[in-house]
Amino acid sequence: MLVVHFFPWQVLLKTFQYPFCISENLPGHMNTKSNRCTSSVKRHVKVHSGEKPYKCTQCKKCFRGSSDLKRHLRIHSGEKPYKCTQCKKCFSCSSTLKTHQRIHSGEKPYKCTQCKKCFSHSSTLKTHLRIHSGEKPYKCTQCKKCFNQLANLKTHLRIHSGEKSYKCTQCKKCFNRSSHLKIQLRIHSSEKPYKCTQCKKCFKQSSTLKIHLRIHSGEKPYKCTQCKKCFNQLAHLRTHLRIHSGEKPYKCTQCKKCFNQLAHLRTHLRIHSGEKPYKCTQCKKTFNRSSHLQRHQRIHSGEKPFKCTHCKKCFNNSSTMKRHLRIHSSDKPLKCDQCRKRFKSSKTFKRHRCSERSVEDRENFTCWMCGEYCHNVCGILFHMSEHGMRKS
Predict the structure, then answer these.
(1) By C-alpha distance, which of 75, 73, 94, 72 is closest to 83?
(2) d(CA 279, CA 290)
(3) For 295-345, which CATH class?
(4) Residue 1 pLDDT exceeds 60
């Protein structure tokens, strides 16, 4: 938008991007006192000429106006003459105080013409307008990524430089963002400031609370394009997509087995390490999976949460119930690859496989004293013990 300022001795043409910038600029020109208006014009002309006659004696920085220099000198002196009457906070500039007072008053004079959202700072509105325009004027020179805020670019540059200027005083861990440090400090303090209004559960991060609220609302904004299944977390959708792609990026370094989830790899590694971190408080038995501990604890409690819909029989784990359901159905999922016979349970299937062994294999499971045939190793060992002997 082009605005023409008319004065007795010259015409100034100045261009503004947004209407609110015009309203901020006009008071300096539209003053009834001609001498004040003339001084504003003279100061404005220095913008085009680049003239900066006022120099700081301490840091040699130059300014266009004496008031600008005076305000700058307060940085060196630490002087803050403008005080907020409500919270007693002090400022070096009157304009900064005015902006601060909007926190107490709730005043938001800068309004977006597109979405009607209001802001207390003109600079915040300028940044917000870039969301609608898609403008990203701040570009990283290394990876060419663009940002709509200078602060976001500065934070991004720390990825390339490796700079981590925010250090935790307790564990000495360093971070490239102040927000990440705040989250880390809550781990040490156990502070959970974000509370769910429905179930009173508390969280360290607002983003975690936001995800949690979807449990109550049932919202699942992330949808799989292949099977149309929906998820309440983006991370869950990404993991799910690996089922379709077959991608298994997490590889065990010991046995080369691959997994599509990091959690599954961590659980698997306990097989190699022998680690069993989940301990039963009643019998002290340990497990390498929390699900195994939960199933075991039902032995002590007598809980049987899995109920057959046909005969109302209850079970303490889902796998036992699945096996039981085959009794009611004609489903025989286990098939012998030699005679094509099908079986409902793995127990009867194993017994059948033993009977189908070759002559040589059958000899290994036949008692050499009485000639009785056993179906497996356990059977022959038990049988031989009855003779008071061990199978070599």
Answers:
(1) 94
(2) 9
(3) alpha beta
(4) no
**Segment among 28-37, 195-204, 290-299, 334-343 with least mean pLDDT:** 28-37
106-164 pLDDT per residue, tens: 899 999 999 989 998 888 999 999 989 999 999 999 999 999 999 899 989 988 999 98
d(CA 265, CA 256) in angstroms, rounded, equals 11
Give dist(CA 300, CA 280) in Å, integer. Answer: 10
pLDDT band at 4 (very low <50, low <70, confident <90, very high): very low
In this chain, the answer to whether the domains covering 2-79 and 295-345 adopt an identical fold is yes
Contact 93, 82 (CB under 8 A): yes
**C-beta separation of 83 from 90 below 8 A:** yes
Whether residue 174 contacts residue 184, with contact meaning beta carbons closer than 8 Å, is answered with: no
pLDDT of the residue at 14: 53
Helix, strand or coil for residue 203? Answer: strand
Tokens representing 250 are 């997490």
CATH number attached to the domain at 2-79: 3.30.160.60
The first and second tokens of residue 291, run together, are 């699900």
pLDDT band (50, 70, 90) for residue 67: confident
Question: And the tokens for 171?
Answer: 């564990």
Alpha-carbon Rg of the chain, whole angstroms?
38
Burial class (CB in 10 A: 0-12, 13-18, 19+), 180: middle
> How is residue 28 annotated by DSSP?
G
| Sequence-distant (≥ 6) Cβ neighbours of residue 263 within 8 angstroms | none
Would the pTM count as exceeding 0.90? no
* Token output for 54: 């006022």
